[in-house]
Amino acid sequence: MRTTLELGQEIGYAKLSIEAVAARAGAGKHTIYRRWPSKGALLLDSLLSLHKSSLDYPDTGDIFADLRTQIHAAVDLLGNPPFGPLYRALVSEAQHDPQLAAALNERFISPQAAMTVARLETARDQGQLSPDFDLSLAMAILSGPLYFQFLITQEPVTHEYVDRVLRALFTGMGK
Amino acid sequence: MRTTLELGQEIGYAKLSIEAVAARAGAGKHTIYRRWPSKGALLLDSLLSLHKSSLDYPDTGDIFADLRTQIHAAVDLLGNPPFGPLYRALVSEAQHDPQLAAALNERFISPQAAMTVARLETARDQGQLSPDFDLSLAMAILSGPLYFQFLITQEPVTHEYVDRVLRALFTGMGK
Q: Which segments constitute the HTH tetR-type domain (chains A, B) (predicted)?
């Protein structure tokens, strides 16, 4: 996985192949394929080796501040190598590799979503959130605008952008 | 472009190449490259040939109902071939083709965003929206949760999902 990260940063993850990783690592490509059946699987393990517990939720008792801290940490990862370019390549691969998409959800997205919802439930019980807000959508609604910026407009996802999004989501669109 | 759509549906857009399109169309590959310098450019023109004005905004005077109508139409496109698989392939390509990402924004995303903001401004002037909601983020906030479902969890983006997202966004997270 270290070889994957090194080579990905040198030649770009789009150009990376299992063959190239095997050659650089001085291993046979069958050795690599035995452990990682596809390029996507190798990218996903490399991604998970990076992020560890750095996206855990703080709980200072102030939900707005804690979401802000947590999402700032996420965009610091997303905005820089190796995590940012690696994650971009992984999402790209997942568009034509349903097994990879399922693994990404199971091993990365779902655990994050569970932590997010748990932190929000505590806040709701403390009266810090609208009791009518549908918490099961929290992950989509909080992270969707970041994905839109990262994958579609591809403008930088900054702390300032996160702060504006959080304010807009807490305000709500309705009267 | 008709050849692109036919061939894309047969073999999948991920496997599609300019060479394959040229062969099927009975044209030289240089003829195709002269008009479309990359696979991404060909996919984008094919996408734009499909969507026409079907994503125009209705204005019945009820912003919630009109957003609902418009986003239902968008997810009907997204959930079915040829638009859905083609758009998925295009977003995938755009992750390693910055020129394509820029063209996608300029020719597809920005015009949609401008229409969305114009319709929302009318609604705000009529007192139908929170005056504190940041309209410049409207596109990211309205479409972000759809992109999250379409690109990341890859669960079906249904009318029911759209309705839940709209209700949550109008409610807002805050007290």
A: 1-54
Cα distances from B17 to residues A47, A151, B50, in angstroms, run: 29, 23, 20
CATH of the domain at A50: 1.10.357.10
C-alpha B53/C-alpha A52 separation (Å) is 46
Name the residue range of residue A118's domain: 39-171
CA dist A154 and B11 (Å) reads 29
Assess if residue B14 is contained within a domain. Answer: no
Structure tokens at B150: 């379409």
Spatial separation of the C-alpha atoms in residues A102 and A100, rounded to whole Å? 5
Q: Which of B142, B140, B43 is nearest to B83 (CA)?
A: B43
pLDDT attached to residue B95: 97
The verdict on a CB contact (< 8 Å) between B169 and A141 is yes
Whether residue B141 and residue A165 make contact (CB cut-off 8 A), yes or no, is yes
The span from the CA of A90 to the CA of B95, in Å, is: 10
CA–CA separation, A41 and A33 (whole Å): 10
What pLDDT is stored for residue B1 in this prediction?
83
| B169:A164 CB<8 A | no
* pLDDT tops 60 at residue A7: yes
Distance from C-alpha of B41 to C-alpha of B11, rounded to nearest angstrom? 19
pLDDT tens string A83-126: 999 999 999 999 999 999 999 999 999 999 999 999 999 999 99
Residue of A13, A92, A138 lying closest to B92 (CB–CB):
A92
| Number of domains making up chain B | 1
Return the amino acid letter for A15: K
Average pLDDT over all residues of chain B: 94
Q: Are A38 and A100 in contact (CB under 8 A)?
A: yes
In a domain, A96, yes or no: yes
CA distances from A150 to A62, A74, A166, A170 (A): 27, 12, 16, 22
Q: How far apart are CA A65 and CA B27, in angstroms?
A: 59
